[in-house]
Amino acid sequence: GPCPPVRSFWGGRIWGGEDMRGGKDMGGGRWCRALLRDYAEAARDAVLGARQRPWRAAGAAAALGGVLACAAAVPDPQSFEVALLEAAGALLLLSPPTRSPQAERHVGRLLRRRDRGQLRYRGLLVAAVVYEAPHDEAVALYRARCPHLAPRWPQLPGRLLDVGFGGRWWVLAAKTRDCDVNEEEFGSLPPHLRRVEARQLRSEENERLFMEKFRPVALSDVERSAEA
Protein backbone atom coordinates (compact mmCIF):
# COMPACT_ATOMS: atom_id res chain seq x y z
CA GLY A 1 0.00 0.00 0.00
CA PRO A 2 1.06 3.65 -0.08
CA CYS A 3 3.63 4.86 2.39
CA PRO A 4 2.01 6.62 5.38
CA PRO A 5 2.78 10.31 5.98
CA VAL A 6 6.27 10.99 7.23
CA ARG A 7 6.55 12.75 10.55
CA SER A 8 9.57 14.03 12.37
CA PHE A 9 11.19 12.11 15.17
CA TRP A 10 9.73 14.51 17.75
CA GLY A 11 6.22 13.50 16.59
CA GLY A 12 6.81 9.93 17.64
CA ARG A 13 7.56 8.36 14.24
CA ILE A 14 10.62 7.87 12.12
CA TRP A 15 11.15 8.24 8.34
CA GLY A 16 8.87 5.79 6.52
CA GLY A 17 6.50 5.57 9.45
CA GLU A 18 6.78 1.76 9.83
CA ASP A 19 8.79 -0.66 11.82
CA MET A 20 10.63 -3.04 9.50
CA ARG A 21 9.89 -5.93 11.81
CA GLY A 22 6.15 -5.63 12.40
CA GLY A 23 4.84 -3.00 10.04
CA LYS A 24 3.63 -0.85 12.97
CA ASP A 25 4.79 2.58 13.94
CA MET A 26 7.97 2.56 16.01
CA GLY A 27 7.85 4.73 19.11
CA GLY A 28 10.61 7.10 20.16
CA GLY A 29 11.70 4.87 23.06
CA ARG A 30 12.11 1.78 20.87
CA TRP A 31 14.00 3.84 18.29
CA CYS A 32 16.42 5.11 20.96
CA ARG A 33 16.97 1.61 22.31
CA ALA A 34 17.74 0.32 18.81
CA LEU A 35 20.17 3.18 18.25
CA LEU A 36 21.98 2.51 21.53
CA ARG A 37 22.16 -1.20 20.72
CA ASP A 38 23.78 -0.42 17.37
CA TYR A 39 26.34 1.87 19.01
CA ALA A 40 27.09 -0.79 21.63
CA GLU A 41 27.72 -3.39 18.94
CA ALA A 42 29.99 -0.98 17.05
CA ALA A 43 31.97 -0.27 20.22
CA ARG A 44 32.25 -4.01 20.94
CA ASP A 45 33.57 -4.64 17.43
CA ALA A 46 36.10 -1.80 17.84
CA VAL A 47 37.41 -3.27 21.10
CA LEU A 48 37.65 -6.74 19.53
CA GLY A 49 39.57 -5.33 16.55
CA ALA A 50 41.95 -3.46 18.87
CA ARG A 51 42.72 -6.68 20.74
CA GLN A 52 43.42 -8.52 17.50
CA ARG A 53 45.66 -5.75 16.05
CA PRO A 54 47.09 -3.83 19.02
CA TRP A 55 49.82 -2.03 17.05
CA ARG A 56 47.38 -0.71 14.49
CA ALA A 57 45.00 0.38 17.24
CA ALA A 58 47.83 2.14 19.10
CA GLY A 59 48.86 3.94 15.93
CA ALA A 60 45.31 5.04 15.23
CA ALA A 61 44.90 6.25 18.82
CA ALA A 62 48.19 8.16 18.64
CA ALA A 63 47.21 9.75 15.34
CA LEU A 64 43.83 10.73 16.73
CA GLY A 65 45.47 12.17 19.84
CA GLY A 66 47.91 14.16 17.70
CA VAL A 67 45.11 15.57 15.58
CA LEU A 68 43.14 16.57 18.69
CA ALA A 69 46.22 18.18 20.25
CA CYS A 70 46.95 20.15 17.08
CA ALA A 71 43.32 21.23 16.85
CA ALA A 72 43.39 22.44 20.45
CA ALA A 73 46.60 24.43 19.83
CA VAL A 74 45.41 26.29 16.71
CA PRO A 75 46.16 30.01 17.26
CA ASP A 76 43.31 32.49 17.05
CA PRO A 77 43.18 35.92 15.35
CA GLN A 78 43.92 37.72 18.60
CA SER A 79 47.19 35.82 19.00
CA PHE A 80 48.30 36.93 15.53
CA GLU A 81 47.61 40.56 16.35
CA VAL A 82 49.49 40.24 19.64
CA ALA A 83 52.49 38.65 17.90
CA LEU A 84 52.44 41.36 15.23
CA LEU A 85 52.36 44.18 17.77
CA GLU A 86 55.15 42.55 19.80
CA ALA A 87 57.32 42.28 16.68
CA ALA A 88 56.64 45.92 15.82
CA GLY A 89 57.53 46.96 19.37
CA ALA A 90 60.77 44.99 19.27
CA LEU A 91 61.76 46.75 16.04
CA LEU A 92 60.98 50.17 17.52
CA LEU A 93 63.39 49.51 20.38
CA LEU A 94 66.26 49.09 17.90
CA SER A 95 68.08 51.91 16.16
CA PRO A 96 67.37 52.11 12.40
CA PRO A 97 70.92 51.08 11.32
CA THR A 98 70.70 47.82 13.29
CA ARG A 99 67.22 46.71 12.19
CA SER A 100 66.83 43.84 9.80
CA PRO A 101 65.43 45.20 6.51
CA GLN A 102 63.61 41.92 5.85
CA ALA A 103 61.87 41.97 9.22
CA GLU A 104 61.07 45.66 8.93
CA ARG A 105 59.50 45.26 5.47
CA HIS A 106 57.45 42.24 6.50
CA VAL A 107 56.14 43.79 9.72
CA GLY A 108 55.41 47.06 7.92
CA ARG A 109 53.45 45.23 5.25
CA LEU A 110 51.35 43.41 7.85
CA LEU A 111 50.68 46.62 9.77
CA ARG A 112 49.52 48.41 6.62
CA ARG A 113 47.18 45.52 5.76
CA ARG A 114 45.89 45.54 9.32
CA ASP A 115 45.18 49.29 9.29
CA ARG A 116 43.30 48.93 6.00
CA GLY A 117 41.24 46.00 7.26
CA GLN A 118 42.61 43.60 4.67
CA LEU A 119 43.73 40.79 6.97
CA ARG A 120 41.57 37.67 6.95
CA TYR A 121 41.74 34.66 9.26
CA ARG A 122 40.66 31.14 8.34
CA GLY A 123 40.79 28.10 10.62
CA LEU A 124 41.61 24.74 9.01
CA LEU A 125 40.96 22.26 11.87
CA VAL A 126 44.62 21.57 12.75
CA ALA A 127 46.09 24.85 11.46
CA ALA A 128 45.13 28.42 10.60
CA VAL A 129 46.08 30.86 7.87
CA VAL A 130 46.12 34.64 7.60
CA TYR A 131 45.76 35.95 4.07
CA GLU A 132 45.31 39.29 2.35
CA ALA A 133 41.93 40.47 1.08
CA PRO A 134 41.67 43.12 -1.64
CA HIS A 135 39.21 45.30 0.34
CA ASP A 136 37.98 46.00 3.83
CA GLU A 137 34.87 44.12 4.94
CA ALA A 138 32.99 47.42 5.39
CA VAL A 139 33.67 48.65 1.85
CA ALA A 140 30.45 48.97 -0.18
CA LEU A 141 32.01 49.25 -3.63
CA TYR A 142 30.63 47.06 -6.39
CA ARG A 143 34.06 45.61 -7.02
CA ALA A 144 34.27 44.56 -3.36
CA ARG A 145 30.72 43.16 -3.15
CA CYS A 146 30.38 41.35 -6.46
CA PRO A 147 31.09 37.62 -5.89
CA HIS A 148 32.24 37.16 -9.48
CA LEU A 149 35.09 39.65 -8.95
CA ALA A 150 36.31 38.11 -5.69
CA PRO A 151 39.74 36.40 -5.70
CA ARG A 152 39.66 32.70 -6.50
CA TRP A 153 41.17 29.90 -4.43
CA PRO A 154 44.04 29.32 -6.89
CA GLN A 155 45.19 32.86 -6.07
CA LEU A 156 45.42 32.11 -2.34
CA PRO A 157 49.16 31.16 -2.30
CA GLY A 158 50.05 34.62 -3.58
CA ARG A 159 47.91 36.28 -0.90
CA LEU A 160 48.98 34.03 1.97
CA LEU A 161 50.70 35.97 4.76
CA ASP A 162 51.17 33.52 7.62
CA VAL A 163 50.46 29.98 8.81
CA GLY A 164 49.54 29.19 12.40
CA PHE A 165 50.29 25.75 13.80
CA GLY A 166 51.13 24.45 17.25
CA GLY A 167 50.28 27.69 19.01
CA ARG A 168 52.56 30.00 17.00
CA TRP A 169 52.71 31.90 13.72
CA TRP A 170 55.64 30.49 11.77
CA VAL A 171 56.19 33.01 8.98
CA LEU A 172 56.22 35.98 11.34
CA ALA A 173 58.56 34.17 13.71
CA ALA A 174 60.94 33.27 10.88
CA LYS A 175 60.97 36.80 9.44
CA THR A 176 61.68 38.44 12.80
CA ARG A 177 64.07 35.85 14.21
CA ASP A 178 67.20 38.03 13.81
CA CYS A 179 65.49 41.41 13.72
CA ASP A 180 68.53 43.09 15.33
CA VAL A 181 70.93 42.05 12.54
CA ASN A 182 71.19 44.24 9.46
CA GLU A 183 72.17 41.89 6.65
CA GLU A 184 72.91 44.75 4.27
CA GLU A 185 75.92 45.80 6.37
CA PHE A 186 77.70 42.60 5.35
CA GLY A 187 76.91 42.87 1.63
CA SER A 188 80.47 43.95 0.74
CA LEU A 189 82.09 40.98 2.49
CA PRO A 190 83.05 37.75 0.71
CA PRO A 191 80.35 35.05 0.75
CA HIS A 192 82.19 32.87 3.29
CA LEU A 193 82.38 35.77 5.76
CA ARG A 194 78.77 36.91 5.52
CA ARG A 195 77.54 34.14 7.80
CA VAL A 196 79.01 33.02 11.11
CA GLU A 197 78.02 29.62 12.43
CA ALA A 198 77.43 28.80 16.08
CA ARG A 199 80.43 26.48 16.30
CA GLN A 200 82.67 29.34 15.23
CA LEU A 201 81.45 31.52 18.07
CA ARG A 202 81.69 28.84 20.75
CA SER A 203 84.79 26.95 19.68
CA GLU A 204 87.32 25.72 22.21
CA GLU A 205 90.06 27.77 20.60
CA ASN A 206 88.16 31.01 21.08
CA GLU A 207 87.45 30.14 24.70
CA ARG A 208 91.13 29.32 25.32
CA LEU A 209 92.27 32.60 23.83
CA PHE A 210 89.67 34.48 25.84
CA MET A 211 90.89 32.95 29.10
CA GLU A 212 94.53 33.63 28.25
CA LYS A 213 94.16 37.34 28.97
CA PHE A 214 93.26 36.65 32.59
CA ARG A 215 96.46 34.70 33.33
CA PRO A 216 99.39 36.53 34.97
CA VAL A 217 102.36 37.29 32.78
CA ALA A 218 105.40 35.14 33.63
CA LEU A 219 108.77 36.76 32.85
CA SER A 220 111.95 34.78 32.36
CA ASP A 221 115.26 35.61 34.11
CA VAL A 222 116.60 37.23 30.97
CA GLU A 223 113.54 39.46 30.63
CA ARG A 224 113.73 40.48 34.30
CA SER A 225 117.43 41.28 34.05
CA ALA A 226 116.81 43.33 30.93
CA GLU A 227 114.17 45.36 32.71
CA ALA A 228 116.44 45.92 35.69
Report a brief summary of the structure.
With 228 residues, the chain is an alpha+beta fold. Helix content is 48%, strand content 8%.
Summarize the structure in words.
The chain has 228 residues and is of the alpha+beta class. It has 10 helices and 4 strands. The protein has helices spanning 28-52, 54-72, 77-92, 101-115, 142-145, 156-159, 170-175, 198-201, 204-212, 221-227; strands at residues 119-123, 128-132, 160-165, 168-169. A 4-stranded antiparallel β-sheet has the order 1-2-3-4. Helix 1 packs across helix 2. Residues 1-25 have low confidence and may be disordered.
List the topology elements:
Layout: H1 28-52, H2 54-72, H3 77-92, H4 101-115, E1 119-123, E2 128-132, H5 142-145, H6 156-159, E3 160-165, E4 168-169, H7 170-175, H8 198-201, H9 204-212, H10 221-227
Antiparallel strand pairs: 1-2, 2-3, 3-4
Helix pairs in contact: 1-2, 3-4
Backbone CA Rg: 34 Å
Summarize the helix and strand pattern as letters.
HHHHEEHHEEHHHH
- Mean pLDDT metric: 80
Strand order in the sheet with the most strands: 1-2-3-4
Please work out how many helical segments DSSP would assign: 10
Distance between the termini: 130 Å
Structural class by helix and strand composition: alpha+beta
Keywords:
alpha+beta, single chain, four-stranded antiparallel beta sheet, 228 residues
